[in-house]
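Agenda item 2: copper (II) ion complex prediction
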Amino acid sequence: MKLRKPITAIFCLVAFCAISGISAGLSQTYGTPAPSPSSAATTTVHIRNSTFTPDNLTVHVGDTVTFMNDDSVTHNVTGDPLNSGDIASGKSWQYTFTKAGTYKYICTHHANMVGSITVVAAQ
Ligand SMILES: [Cu+2]
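Presented output:
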């Protein structure tokens, strides 16, 4: 069979080209830097000495705010649409803001505990 060898050679050539083509494609995929994703940030508001710290904060749409209760007593974060329920000492609660606006909140246990978060459009 004289035809067998050239066919095998062609097959090998095609296979080699396909494999090297795939690996070239892969290295190209991995070599290209990924576009930087829009960065959603997480900011923490600490609750200390019955005070929200900071009590005034500006974040972007998509950002998450963590309220961390560093006090020894229970607090909460209450204000439409924020509604943490009681946050025990040492516990935290998170809220992700999906709409721009000004969000005022209080702690229903302590009348002097007030805070405000301004949410602006994502960058
Ligand atoms: Cu409180």
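Discussion summary: Residues 50, 75, 107, 109-110, 113 surround copper (II) ion (CB under 6 Å).
Owner for follow-up: CH.
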